[in-house]
């Protein structure tokens, strides 16, 4: 029988990759030792009952040499010799051969300064250092004060072969995460509910299935989540959503993945990745990635960038660009900076003009400044006009290859099509008054046209005039229903170019002189 060839693949230590080897390549001695190394044999549990109360009753049954079963009633307190833990229960039974201790009634499992688990029933596997508890289970991590509440919990204590302890809540449970500030003072707990939890060494917590997070003034939802208590970072994955419950500044952040960053246990940055949407009272921001910065739990600045276009929608303006920066102050919108093929589109004042077209401003970059001074509103908002209590745009600047098209109310009334001002230049500055365009200023290489609606020179101007009767004027009376012919007219050679309304559907027409 030929010798068996060595495995053609060997996992590289410290990585998840697999390195291929030819059959002819010899295995190093270190690899041989790793391949032949056996897990450390578990130490059998020698149960110590010395701390049990005087009422304890014990039944010892010897099965064979070194193998026995023990049944305890009337109160049980004990531990495996050499292990820094303690088991308490109303009654217990130990099966030495499989290494099982069953605990019944008022079960308490303790590890000093590490963990305490209470339950109605529990099974301790002595050879594995594993506890399975069920029935009104509460597991408290004594070092931090965090706790887990659920129908069942599985706990793996730390051993030489397993340096970090693990806690698993396989059924829907609730975790109360207690964090302390830099001075060691406990902060308001974060409550997390999920279908399954796994905690590693009281430092890394993972949750799966309909995760709900309630933090001070912030609620969050996702399909799964991870919390790194050491680096103070958290991640929400799939259908992630964060809602700020602060009534003075409510906002909602949605994304496929949301990362949260904290410093000294205070949230200061939130990043929504993949189809992010941020919504506040004065702003709706959409982009592939939205990076939100907070100060004292309040939204202060936001960045929007990534594949595709970023868009910011305010009560008066829609701004689009390759990337954006949003700044807030005193919980109010102050500034929007749009970089890369930027465009701003706004709705003209419907109380002064009637048009379905938008005011449009374009440039390599656009800067929009808002006046967020709150004004007491004595009447409900009027359709077509911005709410006076919301952020109002006061100036927009288009920088680089700038162009603007704005509508102005016609002096002849609201029923007359509005005038249009189209200009181009290196830089354009637009000032607003109460949300409507006040003036447009062009800086460098200015050119453009101003179009104003005028009566149609081709329309019938004799309708409604009295017809000439007999004896009035010369010549016979015109037949009934006919109109006198008018000689064709030509504008004088020096007449200026004008813009005239030619039809309701096309109110402006630039005509050249014949």
What does this structure look like?
The protein is an all-beta fold and about 525 residues long. The chain contains 1 helix and 32 strands. It has one helix spanning about 30-35; strands at about 10, 20, 45-50, 55-65, 65-75, 75-80, 85-90, 90-95, 100-110, 115-125, 130-140, 145-155, 165-170, 175, 190-195, 195-200, 205-215, 220-230, 235-245, 250-265, 265-280, 285-295, 300-305, 310-315, 315-320, 325-330, 330-345, 360-370, 390-410, 420-435, 435-445, 445-450. The chain has a 30-stranded antiparallel β-sheet that branches. Strands 1-2 form a two-stranded antiparallel sheet. The chain is rod-shaped, with a radius of gyration of 39 Å. The chain starts with 8 loop residues before the first strand and ends in a 63-residue tail after the last strand.
What would the keywords be for this entry?
disordered C terminus; disordered N terminus; 514 residues; 30-stranded antiparallel sheet
Layout of helices and strands, plus pairs?
Elements: E1 9-11, E2 18-20, H1 29-36, E3 47-48, E4 57-64, E5 67-73, E6 76-80, E7 86-89, E8 91-95, E9 100-111, E10 115-125, E11 130-141, E12 147-156, E13 166-169, E14 173-177, E15 190-194, E16 196-200, E17 204-215, E18 218-228, E19 233-244, E20 251-263, E21 266-280, E22 284-295, E23 298-305, E24 310-313, E25 317-321, E26 323-329, E27 332-346, E28 359-371, E29 392-408, E30 419-433, E31 436-443, E32 447-451
Antiparallel strand pairs: 1-2, 3-6, 4-5, 5-8, 6-7, 7-9, 8-9, 9-10, 10-11, 11-12, 12-13, 12-14, 13-16, 14-15, 15-17, 16-17, 17-18, 18-19, 19-20, 20-21, 21-22, 22-23, 22-24, 23-26, 24-25, 25-27, 26-27, 27-28, 28-29, 29-30, 30-31, 30-32
């Amino acid at each position: 029988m030929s010798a068996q060839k060595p495995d053609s693949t060997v996992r590289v230590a410290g990585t998840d990759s697999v390195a291929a080897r030819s059959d002819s390549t010899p295995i190093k001695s270190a690899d041989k030792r790793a391949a032949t190394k056996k897990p450390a044999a578990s130490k059998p549990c020698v149960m110590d009952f010395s701390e049990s109360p005087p009422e304890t009753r014990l039944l010892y049954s010897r099965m064979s040499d070194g193998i026995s079963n023990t049944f305890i009633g009337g109160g049980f307190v004990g531990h495996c010799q050499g292990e820094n833990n303690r088991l308490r229960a109303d009654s217990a039974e130990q099966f030495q051969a499989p290494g099982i201790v069953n605990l019944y009634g008022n079960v308490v499992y303790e590890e000093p300064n590490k963990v305490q688990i209470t339950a109605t029933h529990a099974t301790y596997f002595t050879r594995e250092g594993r506890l399975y508890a069920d029935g009104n289970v509460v597991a408290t991590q004594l070092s931090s004060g965090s706790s887990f509440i659920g129908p069942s919990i599985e706990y793996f204590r730390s051993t030489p072969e397993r340096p970090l302890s693990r806690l698993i809540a396989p059924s829907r449970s609730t975790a109360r995460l207690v964090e302390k500030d830099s001075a060691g003072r406990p902060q308001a707990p974060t409550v997390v509910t999920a279908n399954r939890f796994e905690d590693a060494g009281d430092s890394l917590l993972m949750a799966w299935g309909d995760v709900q997070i309630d933090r001070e003034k912030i609620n969050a939802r996702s399909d799964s989540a991870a919390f790194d208590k050491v680096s103070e970072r958290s991640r929400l994955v799939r259908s992630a959503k964060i809602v700020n419950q602060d009534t003075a500044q409510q906002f909602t952040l949605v994304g496929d993945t949301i990362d949260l960053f904290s410093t000294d246990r205070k949230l200061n940055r939130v990043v929504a990745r993949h189809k992010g949407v941020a919504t506040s009272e004065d702003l709706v921001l959409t982009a592939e990635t939205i990076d939100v910065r907070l100060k004292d739990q309040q939204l202060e600045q936001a960045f929007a960038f990534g594949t595709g276009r970023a868009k910011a929608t305010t009560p008066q303006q829609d701004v689009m660009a390759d990337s954006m920066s949003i700044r807030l102050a005193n919980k109010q919108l102050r500034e929007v900076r749009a970089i890369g093929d930027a465009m701003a589109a706004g709705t003209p004042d419907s109380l002064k003009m009637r048009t379905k077209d938008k005011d449009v401003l374009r440039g390599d970059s656009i800067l929009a400044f808002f006046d967020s001074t709150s004004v007491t509103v004595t009447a409900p908002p009027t359709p077509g006009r911005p709410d006076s209590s919301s952020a109002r745009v006061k100036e927009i600047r288009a920088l680089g290859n700038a162009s603007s098209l704005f509508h102005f109310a016609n002096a002849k009334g609201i029923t007359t099509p509005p005038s249009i001002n189209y200009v181009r230049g290196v830089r354009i500055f637009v000032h607003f008054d109460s949300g409507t365009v006040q003036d447009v200023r062009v800086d460098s290489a200015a050119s453009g046209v101003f179009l104003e609606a005028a009566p149609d020179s081709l329309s019938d101007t004799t309708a409604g005039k009295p017809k000439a009767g007999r004896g009035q004027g010369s010549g016979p009376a015109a037949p009934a229903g006919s109109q006198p012919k008018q000689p064709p007219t030509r504008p004088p050679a020096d007449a200026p170019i004008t813009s005239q309304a030619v039809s309701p559907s096309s109110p402006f027409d630039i005509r050249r002189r014949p």
